[in-house]
């Protein structure tokens, strides 16, 4: 019998928790933008997924405080609210052989739960911060998979003109993967470089997909490329 994937187990758990009577209820108090003084778990999930940031931040704080106090139902609610974005991030970033997808999902959930425990609740855009923690984990798996494929496909040419700033005999994907593994660049920085340099995606679209502003993405990518260039003995790094 094939075991269900971690995401499938989470989906089943959130379905059971948010369907029918007896759902856990979250007092919403004076949360601006909400008409009700309390929300059932299903309504909380919907609001966390679709609401404006001023509403979702207030709800995330309430949900995460309950999760941290040991109320397991709200841990499921928090993870379930993130599930559609986790599925997309796993597919987009965690491009690994089919047999390893469950491993990626498990690692993403572990990263999400850890971020739920440690996140500073006084910050804004809490949902985006939670997503980044899980998406970064998928990025790391994806780059490791690319690195392994590059090692076993030495004839594959991946050196495009747009990526000459990270070119050496190993090829840009290997260089980027090694820089990521060495801690020279973060997962998000590596994803920005890969998308906008290796995959010809616009930086604006890459920034949007990763939950960054364009200015932040441009600054992070430039700083990461400068670190890569210094490590490779290069001096000419594209300015935009």
Task: Please give a structural write-up.
The chain has about 240 residues and is mostly helical. It folds into 2 domains: about 5-145, no CATH class; about 170-235, Arc Repressor Mutant, subunit A, CATH 1.10.10. It is about 65% helix and about 0% strand. It contains 10 helices and 2 strands. It has helices at about 5-20, 40-50, 55-70, 70-95, 100-120, 125-150, 170-180, 185-200, 205-210, 215-230, and strands at about 25, 40. It has a two-stranded antiparallel sheet. α5 runs antiparallel to α6 and α6 (about 125-150) crosses α7 (about 170-180). Mean pLDDT is about 80; it is low at about 150-170.
Helix/strand order: HEEHHHHHHHHH
How many domains make up the 3D coordinates?
2
Distance between the termini: 52 Å
Uncertain stretches: 152-169
Strand content: under 5%
What can be said about the biggest beta sheet? 2 strands, antiparallel
Summarize model confidence as the mean pLDDT.
81
* General form: globular
User: Which strands sit side by side, in order, in the main sheet?
Assistant: 1-2
Give a count of the beta strands, DSSP E runs of length 2 or more: 2
Radius of gyration: 20 Å
Query: Which class best fits the helix and strand makeup?
Result: mainly alpha
Number of helices: 10
What portion of residues is helical?
A: 55-70%
